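Hi P.,

Sorry for the delay on this. The queue was packed all week, but I finally got your sequence through. Input first:
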Amino acid sequence: MLRLLKFILLLIIVIGASVGTTMWFTSRDSAPGAPAAAQTAGQTVQAAPPMVPSPIFAELDPFTVTLYGETRNRILYTAITLRLGDEASRKQITDYMPEVRDRILKVLSAQQLPLIQTPEGRQALADALKATLARPFAAQLPGPQVADVLFTAFVVQ
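Then the structure:
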């Protein structure tokens, strides 16, 4: 009985020492050159995390395009989401949606089947769509800020 009591007491001391040591290490400032006044007052000096703006996306309805080949024709089905630079660009894309879809359809229908089946070809297609959509829709407006063209579906049949 006395052995069990000593064992439990020893276990409580070890757990208490472990918790105390953990609290002491986590409450210390990890920066080696921090001012001593901040350390003695118990204050921790932390750098503020950088503010990352929320991404702005514009999801477009899927596109179905016929790709004409030498031996036979294929169908390209793709869904596209645009990553935009600001809210004004999202509003401009939404306001000019018929023209946006027309520009995208023209670029998609001009593609060659062997090229878009490779990762490099898909990246070139995304870059071409980005350049096409960055052009102004009206003479007095700047073009939308298209940061990236994302393919959320890409099927060739």
